Amino acid sequence: MRLLKRVGAGYYESCIRYKAQDDTFFESKKRTTHLSRTKNMIRYRYKKPNILFVGINPHPGSFNRRVPFSNNKLFWYLLSEAGLIKEKRDELRDDNTLERMYREKFNGEYGLGFVNIIGRPTVDITEIQKHEELPGHKKISRIMKTEMPKVVCFIGKVTYEKYTGSKDFSFGWQENIGTSKVFVMHFPLRGEAIVRVRELRQLKRAVKYL
Fold first, then answer.
1. pLDDT at 199 > cutoff 80
2. In sequence order, what are the residues at sequence separation of 6 or more whose Cβ sits closer than 8 angstroms to the Cβ of residue 52?
3. What does the pLDDT average to over 30-57?
4. pTM above the 0.85 mark?
C-alpha cells in the first residue's frame, strides 16, 4: 500500500479507497488462479473399464498437461510394451498424440480407466497432508461400485496403503473388492521396466478370463 500523508479525514478516506483496491486485486487473483486450475485439471476417465488404474496424486507437470503420468510418460510406455494400448513409444513422446489418445481411445476403445485418490498436484508424495486421501477413498469406492471394473490396479504400494490404511501386503494380487479383482503394481519410475511390463501383462491375461 502506498505511503499516505496523515491529513485528518482525508487520510482515513484514502486508506479506505486503497484497501478497497487491494481487496479487489486479491479477489481477482484468486478467481484467476481458480480458473487456471480448473482449466488444467485432469479429466479422469473410468466408464465401465476392464482395468481401472488408481494413482496416488498427479505431478504438476501431468496436471498442467491434463493427462495422468504425462510428465515423464513412463507409465504410457509400459502400457504400450504390455500391449494394452496400440500407440508406440515414439508416438507417445508427443504431448498432443498422448492427449488425443487419452481423450478419444483410452477408455472407449482400450477399455481402460484412470483415477487418482488425491486430485491436488505435488512434486513429491511427502507433500500430501495427513488424511488428505479420505475423500478420495470414498470416491474410488463409489467408482468401483457403480462402474464395476473387472480389475483394479493400484499403482505403487503407497497408493494401496492410502486406500486400505494397511501396510501388510505384497505386490501382486490382493483380496477382491466387490466384484473386482485387485492388483498392486510397482510404481513406474523406479526399477526395471520389464517387471512392470510383466505385471501389466498379468492384468491383460486376467481380463480375458473374467
1. yes
2. 46, 112, 113, 114, 115, 143, 144, 147, 149, 151, 152, 153, 180
3. 72
4. no
